[in-house]
Design a protein that fits this description.
Two copies of one chain form a homodimer. By secondary structure, chain A is α/β, with parallel strands linked by helices. In chain A, 35% of the residues lie in helices and 15% in strands. The first copy, chain A, is globular. At the A-B interface, helix 1, helix 3, helix 4 and helix 8 of A face helix 1, helix 3, helix 4 and helix 8 of B. Chains A, B: This is Aminotransferase. Chains A, B: Its cofactor is pyridoxal 5'-phosphate.
Amino acid sequence: MINGHGNNLQGIQHLLKADFSTNVFDNPQTDGLLDYLQTQMPTIRNYPDPECRILRKKLATTFHISPEQVLVTNGSTEAFYLLAHAFQQQCSAIRTPAFAEYEDACTLYQHQLVFVGDLNVLNSSTPADLVWIGNPNNPDGRYHNPQELIAFLEQNPQRLLVVDEAYIDLCEGAESVAPLVSQYPNLVVIKSFTKLFAIPGIRIGYLLAHPSIIQRLQACHMPWAVNALALKAGEYILDLPEKPSAALRQRLDESKRLQTELARIPGLRVSPSPTNYFLSELQQTTAAELKKQLLEKHGFLIRDASNFRGLGPGHFRIAAQNETINNEFIAALRASINVLQPCLSYPSL
Amino acid sequence: MINGHGNNLQGIQHLLKADFSTNVFDNPQTDGLLDYLQTQMPTIRNYPDPECRILRKKLATTFHISPEQVLVTNGSTEAFYLLAHAFQQQCSAIRTPAFAEYEDACTLYQHQLVFVGDLNVLNSSTPADLVWIGNPNNPDGRYHNPQELIAFLEQNPQRLLVVDEAYIDLCEGAESVAPLVSQYPNLVVIKSFTKLFAIPGIRIGYLLAHPSIIQRLQACHMPWAVNALALKAGEYILDLPEKPSAALRQRLDESKRLQTELARIPGLRVSPSPTNYFLSELQQTTAAELKKQLLEKHGFLIRDASNFRGLGPGHFRIAAQNETINNEFIAALRASINVLQPCLSYPSL
């Protein structure tokens, strides 16, 4: 795994006022889930069902597919590693910048790797048995609509398109291609319960694909990889009458406002994103310096994104918080940039 | 994974009066752990520490080794898969009968396999880079003392000895070789919090070895494989002033008594075991038939052990329960055997 990955807060917790570095949405409407899991604690007294039958059946119903098209995994991360394993030593094209685990998983299982900035540049001569894409993508929030993905699936029937939808519930107006796995045997969709429900500590994700792909992945899947409480969390979430939406709506509006405000700061370039997180780029200083300044002087943690393949030393990712904290962050960011690149705070003469 | 593995109770729960099939000890002295984990539920709001630093440090202190000699895993099962992966395509000797996951993990990572009934039969011409042994062993409870293992380590410096101590806390008078990993770079010890604390649903285990082996395994380890509550469970257990022992003492005495009682039943052969579980063999009927009879007529579940490599159709494994239930089980077993092999219930003329 690449360094500084995830919200690894050990050792800096005492400095922290707000964490803009993680794109997990701290949804206030999901406390019921934690209460429920407390009542389910005795389930850890038995082995979890290695086949995750109850949750697979619920997922199949949700997406109008069969349980044979569903694999439950230890977070969506395990889905990437299982895919890389089941297709070891094949060629993978990764749309970059990307979540580092696609590349790490492929490297571990000796894939030949190709990196592309756009799906359209893949032509018949590109060696790519698998094509990996985040939708919306992490770290830049870029979103492809189903029509674009369907066009790719139809033009590339010999390639497996791996669509990581871990963040799709946090993306404005986004539509999942999950139900399309019945129609396209070359489509794999990976999803997570983590992001909208803010439970990355419990490790629960899933993968939807053609039964033949699921079988191939199951052959690589060690038993009991998903713990008993994680299964209960997934079951609870799927049984909810509706997804928490008011808090999310508000957060996405805040993300847009924050993007607009930051774009006004001299020396900063913002990549527009339809999600709660987005990329920015510093023009005259590094993300590492800004991160240090913001944490030590103001207690705000950002994600230095310079270690994402294809990004530079000035790139950082932030996830919008609530209005009050965002306003404090904007002021802190202006002040920090003034310290780090003072010449940019005045119009050039 | 082999079929009928673990206590897979889905679908038969309504028939069940007592479960003799799992060798997880239902320790009544561990309820405090479940209460503690309820208070720790908010930890699932953040990613677990991918390096498991707090737990590794506590384990290092416990075994008088360094944190660089410790790897925390998603149950001990993940430790087997990581080892098989890190040493893929090498030769493994497995002491049989054995927990099926050693073989499954090695097969998945294309090991050449050798099966031996005894460590002593391995000589310099046996192709074995790794040697796997359960201590005490599952399913037969066989125990090797440290002197035997040390002799093997010293006579086979070129071979990695993998000692699975998942059940060692449940074995009378057993001594762990865990602290010896500092002395023998060819020793790997795998342990679990699951068995004595009866929490197989939470998935937490660990592996102790030379730092160079730990590094090799870490390179194969996907991030966040161990969930946040599992880490908390491990930390809690290591902080306990003493291990729960009175209940265990009683259970081991019950296991001995049950072994003696069963050995008296005509048509049954019992393999003596120093643990809470042991193997028995039916001489004139199959374990599958006995299992069906015991479950359907009496509500007792046993582990048909005929699918362990090296065992036959008559083998089954049981784990002793409390005195009352054991007595009911003995009566049920006598009755079932009378039905299945009536000729054996009377002395031959």
